[in-house]
Fold:
Amino acid sequence: MSIQIYILGKLAEGNSYPYKLKKLLSDPIPIDKFTGISESKLYYHFDKLADKGYIEVVETIKEENRPDKNVYQITDQGRVELTKRIYQTFEKAIEMNEMYIALSYIKHVKVDKVLDILEQKIEKQRLAWETYLSFDLEIDEQSEAYWSVKFIQEHAYSRAQHNAEWLKKLIVSIKENAR
Structure:
C-alpha cells in the first residue's frame, strides 16, 4: 500500500512517469534499496492504479531509440483515495516505519485528524499495557521458562514504551511543522 501512496502522492504534486519516480526514490537517500521497490514494481502499481481510475495517462513521450514514456496524472478519484490511504496507514500502523510514506504526504490530509488518530493510538497502547502489567505472572523463579518469560515481558514492554515515546515526538513534530 505504501508504494501506491508514494505514487499517488507524487502525482498529486505534479505529473510524472514511473522511471522518474524510481530515480527520485534513490536520490539523495537510496530508499529504493531499503524498501526493495524496483522499477518493475513501480510499473505494476502504476498499472493497478490506472485500472482503478486513480491515475491516467496524459501524455506519451516518444524519443528515438527509446521506449515510449507514459506521463501520468492523478484523478479526482485518486486524490480521494490518497487521503483515505494516508488515514488508513496512520490507523493501522504498528511500527513507526510503517508511517514514513504517509507522513511524507501529510499535507494532503487534515492534520488534526491525523493527530486524533495518533493520540488515540497512544491511549490504546497505554490501556493495553496497563492491562498487561496488571497480570501477576506467577512463574516459579526456578522454572526453566522463567528467564524466557521475563526476557519477553521486558522486551515487549520496552518496545511499547519506545513506540509511545516516538508517537509523542511525532505528534509534537506534526504540531510544529505540518500545519
